[in-house]
Amino acid sequence: MSSRSLAGALLVLCASLTGCTGRQIQAMRVHPEQAPTSPAAVSFQPWTGAAVVPNSNYPKDPNAARPQPPAQFASLKQPLTPTADNLAKGKDLFVANCAPCHGTDGRGTGPAAGSLNPHPADFAQPIHAKLPDGYWFWRLSVGGTVSPFKDVGSAMPPWEGTFTPQQRWQIILYEHTFSQHK
Predict the structure, then answer these.
(1) Which CATH number belongs to the domain containing residue 138 in this structure?
(2) CA distance 74 to 17
């Protein structure tokens, strides 16, 4: 087993079995040969087409539309407004728990990202500005525990047992600052 595969397997084991948070993941070392491409070197085209579709090839194809969330999530709307207080609380939660993988800039280049396959989402990609609230809440709540994410080995933990609904919505408000979500 390669060291990269072993690192990914250990990360998945840590996150899924022990309830490991981003603070523990942040302590992991990124190998220079696995360092992700500089976000400044990547340019994105505006997203055209539907942001979510019934049958999606995402996350195998990171440029594909995202899968539709289950019905209980699909119609959810963000109940909070982006006040300074909500954004500050969302940022604190994001930096402590999400930034180890997604990076402090939300580009998917955190210290643990190099060992993950699939790589963490880059929230600056134009598609993230068009994803509906229900999709965001679904992904944050269940993480990589459901298809199609578990089918490709997503290491994203389910945060529904860690954060209250209000905290998840605050994180989402903060994540929206990376994509200019409307």
Answers:
(1) 1.10.760.10
(2) 28
| 132 falls within a domain | yes
Range of the domain at 79: 3-35+62-179
DSSP assignment string, 119-174 = PPP-TTSGGGGT--HHHHHHHHHHTTSSTTTGGGT--PPP-TTTS-HHHHHHHHHH
Say what the pTM is.
0.76
- Listed as own residue / partner, the contacts of 124-128 with beta carbons closer than 8 Å and 24 or more positions apart are 124/39, 124/44, 124/178, 124/179, 125/44, 125/47, 125/179, 126/44, 126/45, 126/46, 126/47, 126/179, 127/47, 127/51, 127/65, 127/66, 128/175, 128/178, 128/179, 128/181
pLDDT (tens digit, 9 = 90+) per residue, 127-179?
A: 999 999 999 999 999 999 999 999 999 999 999 999 999 999 999 999 999 98
C-beta of residue 144 within 8 angstroms of C-beta of residue 154 = yes
